[in-house]
Design brief:
By secondary structure, this protein is an alpha+beta fold. It folds into three domains: about 30-105, Butyryl-Coa Dehydrogenase, subunit A, domain 1; about 140-275, Butyryl-CoA Dehydrogenase, subunit A, domain 2, CATH 2.40.110; about 290-610, Butyryl-CoA Dehydrogenase, subunit A, domain 3, CATH 1.20.140. The protein contains 22 helices and eleven strands. Belongs to the acyl-CoA oxidase family. GO terms for molecular function: acyl-CoA oxidase activity; FAD binding.
């Protein structure tokens, strides 16, 4: 990646002293050398294309950022056609690497990630024939309008209505209250001319719950809102500056009956409602989206750790020994303790995301044929993992920013933008606490089935043997991955058992089910978290058993897995000590092992982040540059600020000069 660039001598030394070839881990992470080769070809095409170059986003207003993204998005669609990119993976990679800012949503992101997949998954063949060609060729640009100002995760509470009129065979769309305004959909504010609208279906005064409708919101001639449509941008946000998240409301907007997406549920011309084969069919799309969030959380955390680790090797600070040169910041064990657990977590989440995508693809064919038996488990697992990984990624990225000291506060580091764009992952596609409670609901159901003698399978198979385990008298090897997986399994099983007992106690105390559930919710979330963490640790350990894994990288990946498990164990040590499953000696041993593992990982730290294979154009970080030449580029970046275009800013003449002159005159 460095090419002929002059590399900072400290970073060069780090790379020369690593114990493995980073490309071998890169191949492992991405699925093989051919995939990596193709990825790099597409990166080069996107990042080196002069048509995509633009001023640093940090120096642009929100409106300028939006215009920049729109221009690049249009260029992107043309170039994808020109380059004849037809493979879905190729297009995803290419879009990712021309996203404005590298970490912002790709151009037409909701059109690609939600609007089109909804048409693919929920439209009838006739509806696909009508709309897909137009959508795939960007004649119509769509978004997914579900969240409202007053309702998000609780879909049944959506207030937007679609009332069927059998006389005209139309649906009448209305926004009955201010809280019913659609709020947050990306590309809604100024870009989209269509949306898939989630609205409460009413027929003859009866509600049939939320259903998807295809609704045109802007003219295809002049892009003005259609009659009865109120639409606009919601204003500046914490992140995603270039994205026009929008609001949307309707007043008696009529759409044809055929505009309800009817692959599963239908409304006949006379108003007869035809139920879907199963209410769980929508889970499939949710599982896919949440699996992507797990992947993206791993990637986001990996970017932040890459920036902080490289900078911690370039930055030298204080005196460790009198008279000796200032050491690299990463030589301080406290800095390693800040960064290395999140480095391990990034690898763990990366592999977990891959597993979730693989599981989804394995079962998607049987789901499409109507066999949905696996969906409840996948839905519960993906909900818990989505919450766990996005929560940890948010905390880890902020820790990485803090680990970069003062310069981490600068947009030059790239970390504020990366963090701001990752943090909504804890909210969108399901607020995380609600997601954990959905996982907990499945765990309670599975636990009760196990009590009735049913044999459980998949991610909850371990609940079949839920029972208190007495403290072991033997001394455990706290580096053994099997023993660590056993510990996480026991913790998850015990916390599920205790949550179930607490729920039962609340019911026996006279509470009805909803109140008992609410009273137990903290225990339920804790159980779901333990279940999700067990899956991540177990998956990481299992991925290391691949016989194709090169021995030169097996050792360092094993250390990462051990560190991830041990750090989780020590952080949650009370859970393992409460029932005596582990002893104080075990936990103290685990702490000592963490220090030992960090010392062994220290020489390989830069190689491990290099293996993520993020080019500079994606990191968008001066602190995380591959060549490590931080300080000269930090100065150049600062000089490029619009405030530095003149030596004397115009505000001096307007405000400061009169103020100074008036003060002088008083003396």
């Amino acid at each position: 990646m460095a090419g002929t660039r002059t590399v900072n001598p400290d970073l060069r030394k780090e790379r020369e002293s690593s114990s493995f070839d980073p490309d071998k881990i890169t191949n492992f992470l991405y699925g093989g050398p051919e995939i990596v080769k193709r990825k790099r070809e597409l990166e080069s095409l996107a990042l080196n294309d002069p048509d995509y170059q633009h001023e640093d986003l940090n120096f642009l207003s929100n409106e300028q950022q939006y215009e920049t993204q729109l221009k690049k998005g249009i260029l992107m669609t043309k170039k994808i056609q020109k380059l004849n990119l037809t493979d879905a993976q190729d297009m995803m990679i290419y879009r990712r690497y021309i996203a404005v800012g590298g970490s912002d949503s790709p151009s037409f992101g909701l059109h690609v990630s939600m609007f089109l997949p909804t048409l693919y998954g929920q439209a009838t063949q006739e509806q696909k024939d009508k709309w897909l060609k137009l959508a795939e060729n960007y004649v119509i640009i769509g978004t997914y309008a579900q969240t409202e100002m007053g309702h998000g995760t609780f879909l049944r509470g959506l207030e937007t209505t679609a009332t069927y009129d059998p006389q005209t065979q139309e649906f009448v769309i209305n926004t009955p209250t201010i809280t019913a305004y659609k709020w947050w959909p990306g590309q809604l504010g100024k870009t989209s001319n269509y949306c898939v609208l989630m609205a409460q279906l009413y027929i003859h005064g009866k509600s049939y719950g939320p259903h998807p409708f295809m609704v045109q919101i802007r003219s295809l001639q002049d892009h003005k809102p259609l009659p009865g449509v109120i639409v606009g941008d919601i204003g500046p946000k914490f992140g995603y500056g270039p994205v026009d998240n929008g609001f949307l409301a309707f007043h008696n907007v009529r759409i044809p009956r055929e505009n309800m997406l009817m692959k599963y549920s239908k409304v006949e011309p006379d108003g007869t409602y035809v139920k879907p084969p199963s209410t769980k069919l929508a889970y499939g799309t949710m599982v896919l989206i949440r699996a992507n969030i797990v992947m993206n959380s791993g990637r986001a955390l990996a970017k932040a750790v890459t920036i902080a680790t490289r900078y911690s090797c370039v930055r030298r600070q204080s005196e460790m020994k009198p008279g000796q040169p200032e050491p690299q910041v990463l030589d301080y064990v406290t800095q390693q303790y800040k960064l290395f657990p999140y480095l391990a977590a990034a690898y763990a989440f990366w592999l977990t995301g891959q597993t979730m995508m693989s599981v989804y693809m394995t079962f998607s064919s049987q789901i499409s044929k109507g066999d949905i038996s696996v969906l409840p488990e996948l839905h519960a697992l993906s909900a818990g993992l989505k919450a766990l990984t996005s929560w940890v990624a948010n905390m880890g990225m902020e820790e990485c920013r803090l680990a970069c000291g003062g310069h981490g506060y600068s947009h030059a580091s790239g970390l504020p933008r990366h963090y701001a764009n990752q943090t909504p992952g804890a909210t969108y596609e399901g607020e995380n606490t609600v997601m954990m409670l959905q996982t907990a609901r499945y765990l309670m159901k599975s636990y009760n089935q196990s009590l009735q003698g049913e044999k459980l399978a998949g991610s909850v198979a371990y609940l079949s043997s839920v029972q208190p385990v007495p403290a072991a008298s033997r001394t455990r090897n706290m580096l053994d991955l099997g023993a660590l997986c056993d510990a996480f399994r026991h913790r998850a099983a015990r916390l599920v058992h205790e949550a179930a007992m607490q729920l039962r106690n609340e019911r026996q105390a006279g509470k009805d089910q909803p109140d008992a559930w609410n009273a137990t919710s903290v225990d339920l979330v804790k159980a779901a978290m333990a279940h999700s963490q067990y899956f991540v640790v177990k998956n990481f350990a299992e991925r290391l058993t691949d016989s194709r894994l090169d021995s030169s990288i097996s050792a360092v990946l094993t250390r990462l897995c051990q560190l991830h498990a041990l750090h989780g164990l020590v952080t949650n040590s009370g859970d393992f000590l409460e029932d005596g499953y582990l002893t104080g000696t075990d936990v103290r041993q685990a702490r000592r092992h963490i220090n030992t593992l960090m010392a062994k990982l220290r020489p390989d730290a830069v190689a491990l982040v290099d293996a993520f294979d993020f080019p500079d154009g994606i990191l968008n970080s001066i602190l995380g540059r591959y060549d490590g030449n931080v300080y000269q580029h930090l100065l150049e970046w600062a000089k490029a600020s619009p405030l530095n275009k003149t030596d004397v800013h115009q505000s001096y003449h307007k405000y400061l000069k009169p103020f100074l002159e008036a003060n002088r005159a008083k003396l």
